Description:
The complex is a heterodimer of chains A (about 110) and B (about 475). Chain A is of the alpha+beta class and about 110 residues long. Chain A is about 20% helix and about 35% strand. In chain A, helix 1 runs antiparallel to helix 2. Chain B is mainly α and about 475 residues long. Chain B contains 14 helices and two strands. Chain B has helices at about 1-30, 45-70, 80-105, 145-170, 175-195, 220-240, 255-275, 280-310, 315-330, 335-360, 370-390, 415-445, 450-455, 455-460, and strands at about 130, 135. The model of chain B is unreliable at about 15-35 (pLDDT under 50). The interface between A and B is medium-sized, with 8 and 17 residues.
Amino acid sequence: MKKVEAVIRHYKLEEVKNALTQAGIQGMTVTEVRGFGRQRGHKETYRGAEYTVDFLPKVKLEVVVGEAEVAKAIKTISDVARTGQIGDGKIFITSLEDVVRIRTGETGPEAI
Amino acid sequence: MKSKFWAALAVCFFASATAGQLFAEEAAVAAAPAQAPQPNQFNSGDIAWMLTSSALVLMMTAPGLALFYGGLVRKKNILGVMMQCITLMGVMSVIWALYGYSLCFGDSVGGMGLIGDFKYAFLNGVSPYWDGQQSIHPALNASIPRSVHMIFQMMFFIITPALICGAFAERMKFSSMLLFSVLWGTFVYCPVAHWVWSDNGWCSEFNPKAVYKAYDFAGGTVVHITSGISALVCALLLGKRLGYGQEPMPPHNLTYTYIGATMLWFGWFGFNGGSAGAADLRAANAFVTTHMAAAAGTIAWAFLEWVVRGKPSILGACSGAVAGLVCVTPASGSATPMSGIILGLCAGAVCFYACTTIKNKFGYDDSLDAFGVHGVGGTLGALLTGVFATRAVIPAVPGVVTEPCGLLEGNANQVVAQAVGAGAAMLLAIVGTVIILKIVDAVLGLRVNQAGELQGLDINQHGEEGYIFY
């Protein structure tokens, strides 16, 4: 099992969600996050006081998939979330030890 | 010791109040044979407009200033700002009824035009009373009762210290702010209002014996110069907020600031329009001139930003509107709408410079630019009133004022009179605020402690949070 975390643009969330669902990947968790990569932030000015805002708002989407679906998930997200401009985001993939479905107590791939 | 003091104070109030009542009755008896004026006969149109205006001015503090300032602070301090506004609505109102109105509009102590006596203390001679046969509503003049004048002026007494809160926002203790506002209202606001607005103030346009008749229609000097200059003194004496200049302190919600600013604009129609004291031609002109100045101020600040910094900002447009309104306040009763546009343009440009350049150069932390907008805009307005005042506007009844009024009509002395009035108000604002702050510092201290300031005034001073998300 793998956990796929994708930090993407806000306005891409709906498209990515639909594409993942169509690809047969079930369930996801979404968080509002702020951060920066190579893009860095922008300048804001309030009555002459200038601030550099480095932490830009993004959306982090987490899905957990079986080994067979990892490549499909990554391809779907990167195809749909890509605009080609700086700031499209990143995808992080980690190995997942276990999953528990609280209601039934199932564990492992069946619990995904 | 303390109780003796209060007892003595109460006796003083009572004695002067009773004396006032006796004199009033004597005067009424003396005037009776000539032409018996019907008591309680007023102009319902004037009363309606003045009550409406009073509500409009209260709206400037209650949601207006609270949102305007509230949006500009960091989110941990929003309740601190709102609490200051609503508490001042409570405290200043009560003080005004107890003695504030009397200090401003009572007879001059010793006839010097410096401060009023206790004639109207406890609303004696202001609120209705039973004279043995009928109820009497004391009159200000033939058109409105004194109670209406009192409540309209009360709203100014509330908003003026609330404006100063912008200078010490995010760091002053709530208790100290309260004590400061009470002392400041008593010893700075009341005298200046008496000088400028009472029939016997030493620089009042209503005092026929005054050498310098400063035009201050709606409070450019009384409200904005006093609060703006005192704000600068507060910013200097309290010192900077922790981390000022090192960490970002951007406004936490400019949408609030926008709502607040537009409410100020709306409420200002009552602030200036109501200052005519009647629903008359001068009120109509003040209404129009006020709007034009706000419009021009908005354009000036936002467009200057656009040119200088590349982008016009919401905060700039809002600030420009307020700057224009501040500047036109003293002039609205004596300048034409076209002059209002010039006043607004000047205010937008000058206050923009004050808030963005002068402040950074000198490095004082006037958190929300109470000085940069109200002090600078108010002073500019006081002086420009002397330039643009015209006899075309001043008399509600044509023909009352026939001499040239402002510089443009050839009366350079009016600019001098304006400068004298403004200068005197500044002097009292500086000296009074320094002394009051020293007293408050000695009794209560001025600032919350370091941990409290980092935590935020909302939790530290009030035990609440503005935003709770689950």
